[in-house]
Amino acid sequence: MAQVNILIVEDDKKLNDGIRLALKDTGDQFYQSMMLKEAEQILKNCRIDLVLLDVNLPDGNGIDFIREIRKTSTVPIILISVNNMEIDIVTGLEAGANDYITKPFSLMVLRARAAVQLRDKSAADCGHIRIDEYDFDFDNMKFFKAGIPVELSKTEQRLLRILCENRGATVKRGALIDYVWHGDTEFVEEHALTVTVKRLRDKLGDNSNQPGYIRTVYGIGYTWAVKG
């Protein structure tokens, strides 16, 4: 099994160390940071499998940091905050966090939530993703809804994969076009992405008028919605 690398970004040193001790059976290598600038360098230079991120840090806001991370990475992120208002939780999840836990919290609960994110990431790395009634095996190009096969074109498969791997985060139109059409955007028609999204929704049975999964973020791009 590959080494698991966990980054803890928390400016309370006692809590930072407590999280590391709580997760010692989950991770193999821990990177601890109390500043966003240092955390940014760690993410650039190291392969990180899970980030535990405080919202309020001395040199910035964790939610803004998530938005920057999501421009280039799908690494699982658990947001840690003293803010327990519903709007704060929703804001964090919409920014791209995979989970949200409020202080004070049980270290046992945190360990369980970290294990879930690492398990999901492991499955995604293997190219096999299960979401509700969907079962997507990208490596073998087999896709099912409620056990019934769904036939997808190569373009639809690439679009589905990038949305699923970034579920909960908004992927910009430009990034989707570059990924789906391999950067060969010169020959991509203006509405090609819109048409491909509609076809994918139709094949997955995701109502185009009120999609439950592939949702449009107007003026920005698309997201595979994470349901509460």
How would you summarize the topology of this molecule?
Elements: E1 5-9, H1 13-22, E2 29-33, H2 36-45, E3 50-54, E4 56-57, E5 60-61, H3 62-69, E6 77-81, H4 86-95, E7 99-102, H5 107-125, E8 128-131, E9 134-137, E10 142-145, E11 148-149, H6 154-165, E12 171-172, H7 173-180, H8 192-204, E13 214-217, E14 221-224
Parallel strand pairs: 1-2, 1-3, 3-6, 6-7
Antiparallel strand pairs: 4-5, 8-9, 9-10, 10-11, 12-14, 13-14
Helix pairs in contact: 6-8
Q: What's the total number of strands?
A: 14
Order of helices and strands: EHEHEEEHEHEHEEEEHEHHEE
Q: Strand arrangement, largest sheet?
A: 2-1-3-6-7
- Distance, first to last CA: 31 Å
Mean pLDDT figure: 87
Shape descriptor reads globular
Biggest beta sheet attributes = 5 strands, parallel
Output the number of helix runs. 8
User: How much strand content do the residues show?
Assistant: 15-25%
Radius of gyration: 18 Å
Task: Give the low-pLDDT segments.
Answer: none
Report helical residue fraction. 25-40%
Structural class: alpha/beta
